[in-house]
Amino acid sequence: MDMTKEQAQARIEALRKEIDEYNRRYYAEAKPVVSDFVYDALLAELGKLEAEFPEFKKEASPTQKVGDDHLDGFVTRPHKVPMLSLDNTYNEEDVRRFTTYIAKNLPIGEAVHYTIEPKVDGISISIRYENGVLVQALTRGNGKEGDDVTVNIRTVQSIPQRLAGPGPFPEVFEARGELYMSREGFSHLNAQRIAEGEDEFANARNATAGTIKLLDVEEVARRPLDAVFYAQGELKGIDINSQLELFNAFRRFGLKVQSWFGEADDTEGVIAAIRHIHDGRYDFPYDIDGAVIKVDAFAQRETLGMTAKAPSWAKAYKYPPEQCATLLKAITVQVGRTGVLTPVAELEPVFLAGSTISRATLHNEDDIQRKDIRIGDTVLIEKAGDVIPAVASVVMAKRPPDARPFSLFEHIGGKCPACGGPVEKDAKFVAWRCVNLYCPAQAMRRVEYFAARNALDLECLGPSVASALIENNVIKEPLDLFSVGQETLMKLNLGTENEPRLFGKNGQKLVEALERSRSKPLSAWLHALGIPEVGAATAIELGRVHKNLEELASSRILRALAALCDAEAGVKYDMFRPCPYSTDDLPATPRELAEILLPLGLIRQSKSKQKGYATTSIGQKTALSVLSFFASDIGKNILARLHELGISPQGAVPPEGASSKLAGLTFVITGKLESMEREAAFDKIRTAGGSVGTSVSGNTDYLVAGAGSEGTSKTAKAAKLGVKVINEAEFLKMLEE
Fold this sequence. Notes:
The protein is an alpha+beta fold. Helices cover 35% and strands 19% of the residues.
């Protein structure tokens, strides 16, 4: 059906939003939620619509840029030669069109030689050697600049610190390839994590992506990372004219390449090589998800050129997932440990990719509506790699006449299936969510919050242990942990009845960690309790200005903050609209309220002409959330239980009359600090009354420039906006004064 301009614009915007979210999950979190096949289909649809309606095309569209894997904590550096992605296809006819395009765009009669390589399912990396010595390693990033992960790459044993051979070596030799974990190494890593009470990784690619972005280099060194190389970046002092010559150089310099390498002189030879890799892809020691076809001669590559996103002389052929048809009998809705409601297809059991499938994910309501999936439909399901089975499409010819469009909200009667509480649509993540943190289905989430490193840091209590504690009815709530004996914990079964795996000596470590947690500061406990609107940074702010939980529960400071926000907004309460917090002991004017908050750094003079003050680290929504939490039955019960357990977390309130050293100041950090980890610096800033930003803006007071920050985007923006840049020594002096 032809689209109107309005319909096309709406669909384009919806696709961009959905694809950007999938990119975030894939690149930033290393936790893909859809198969490559589904993602590529969405990207292809967006590209087609942008071609048909060029007036809606944008430079920021996912079709015009490489996915960005940048994470805070790493310095970004430019690629001397852009590190582009590859156009891909699942269709052999597209391969034929690709080789036809190559022939048409080269001089008439010029012969073409192709190389065909297995496509490793890992993480792209660029390693730079200068005069034979490894000096830098960058991730792909956004294609123009990547994260500097040199210190982590130095731990990968198969990547040489110096190029092999007698020399002389090239002035510059940039080798590009794929980081991965072998199937054997990945299995060993997961077994080790289970034994230590940590959660398993979903697949080797996710594990690799998560590992290379760790800030703990010792932990990176313990992970089984490996690499193979297949491309070049900047080259100086070496003459390489083809892919075959490049591979010979890799071997000569001691850089690993894949054991299988195909060559062809025509289209049929290329397709034969693609099929050969497909038939033997499970014989490789690592995961393969396709084949990469390249024009061998570099001179011909220069002639063919490239687009903004990919070279025109290469193509990735990806193997489509296996599919089969079955009946969708019902849709159930699961409540995840973070409150996300996930629709699940209940299927007529069918055998697919080596196992019997009776359930498949439907991702979210938007995905259901886009595919027009209805109960009673015959659907095609697929299982691609380690991604769980998913419904790919509907067999429309077999749709029953009474099948109705699916509405998740109507399907669950507008209430959480687990607790009956309210649900809300999370627009950012295109998902419905139960907003009741104390929903029974989220018990595991509460235990994870409780045990997190920036909360109570309970050693050995990872997601798999939390799950076992809840599912075996050892505990119902996090505070129950203090009543569980060491012997019970040691006998906790993390496996199955047929294959038991005891928690063992880790039970003793957990008991010892629980005992240490009794003396943790108020900020750690506030984060551990999982109060809505209170994350790690907010917990530090609350702990900085309150003596203990009892004071916080009816906090005069938070009530003053809420009252000032109401006064600034012109809100007045009367007998028909009762005030949601007590004002009995609060001053009456905004100026008097501000006098309570300004010395604490919780507000600052507003730059807006309409308002006199602006909040810094804690807003009215957070203040009211904390007050409401401790006024609720849940909050009162937690206070009572902590009192029974003899636990009284203490805050970091400054001496009477003293003001916070960095009150009202906002800091951004770039580069590497030599004296402390970045998170420790954040904690010191917040404890001293300042706030932390992730990007430089007009509200930033100081940019702390650590090692390797020269020329970064943050320093450039600070110069443009006139933000003061200080070095680490100046920053430490500010903390001390």
